[in-house]
C-alpha cells in the first residue's frame, strides 16, 4: 500500500510556496493514503545551528499542518528529532552515498555560498538525512515542491545502491520486496520513491522577481506571502507584485518569457484547484489591474481561515506538543521495525 511521507523545516515563517508546493497537497493526499507529516527540525540546524525559538517554530509548522486540514488522529504528525531512527539510518546512508553525489546538489551549492569549505558537514549530508526520513518508513510517495526534485532523485539512488550492495543479505533474510525499475522486475529492501511534484504551481516564484523561487530567506518580505500575513498585508503584497504591462493572453504558449505573469496565473490556479488553462479562459484579455484584485480575494478566502486557526492552535502549545508526542510514538514503532531489519541486513550485532 503506498505510504506518503513529507517534511517541512522549522526555519522561519511558512509562505505561499510551502503551502502550494507541499502542505495543500498533503491535505489532498490524506483522503486516500496513510501519511506521515514531519517537522524536520534536524534539517533546520544544517544551514544555521542556533535558532532563537526552534521550539516555537516547530510548533508553528505543526499548527500549520493541522490548520490546513491534516487530521493528526488519522495520520502521523511528528517532529524528526524525536524519532532516533532518522539519525541512525542517515548514518548508514552517509556510508552508502558518495561525496561526489552530494557535491552536485544545487541546493548545497546555493546554500553553502562561495566558501564551501566553511559550510557544515550536515549541510553537505542534507540529502542523505532526507533519504533516511522517507525510507525509514519505506514510504513511496513524496509530495514536495519542484526545488526538491534533485534530492528525491538522489534518495532513489541511495535506495538502489543499498539494495544492490546488500542484495544477497536481503534475500537470505527474506526481507526483499519486488518492484519495477523501468521494464525490469527487481527485488530490494527499500522501495523506489515516487516524487509527487505536479500541479499548476510546483515552484512558486518571488512576487518581486519571477525568475527567483519564493523563499523564507529572501530579505524582501514583499517577495512572499507568509501564511501568517493578515488580509491587508496579502492585498498590499499582491498589489505591489511585479508584472508586465500586457494583458493576460489566450494561451499558455503566449505566456512564455513572462515569468511574473506565469507565476500569478499559477498561484491563482493552484489556490482555486483549477488548471491554468481554465483560469486563462476566464481572464484572457484582462489587465493585471483586474486580475490582481481577484487574486487578492481568492488568496484571502483560502488563507485567512488557516491563519486564524493557526493562531488559535498556537495559543495552546501543550496541545500541539501532545499531538507531536503521540505522532512520534506511532512513528517510532514503524521506524524501529525498519531499523531492526537494517541492522540485521548490515550485520550489526
Ligand atoms: N517556492 C516554492 N514553491 C513550491 N514549493 C516550495 N517549497 C519551498 N519553497 C517552495 C516546498 O515546501 C516544502 C518545505 O520546504 P522546506 O521547509 O524544506 O524549506 P525550503 O525549501 O528550504 O523553503 P524555502 O522557503 O525556500 O527556504 P530557504 O529560504 O531556506 O531556501 C518542500 O516540499 C519544498 O519543496
UniProtKB/TrEMBL annotation:
Binding site for L-tryptophan: 133
Compartmental location: Cytoplasm
Enzyme class: ligase
Chain ranges for the short sequence motif 'KMSKS' region as given in the UniProt record: 213-217
Primary site of residence: cytoplasm
Binding positions (ATP): 9-11, 17-18, 145-147, 204, 213-217
Pfam (any one): tRNA-synt_1b
SUPFAM superfamilies to which the protein is assigned, alphabetical: Nucleotidylyl transferase
Entry keywords, A to Z: Aminoacyl-tRNA synthetase, ATP-binding, Cytoplasm, Ligase, Nucleotide-binding, Protein biosynthesis
Assembly description: Homodimer.
Entry's family note: Belongs to the class-I aminoacyl-tRNA synthetase family.
Function: Catalyzes the attachment of tryptophan to tRNA(Trp).
Designated name of the protein: Tryptophan--tRNA ligase
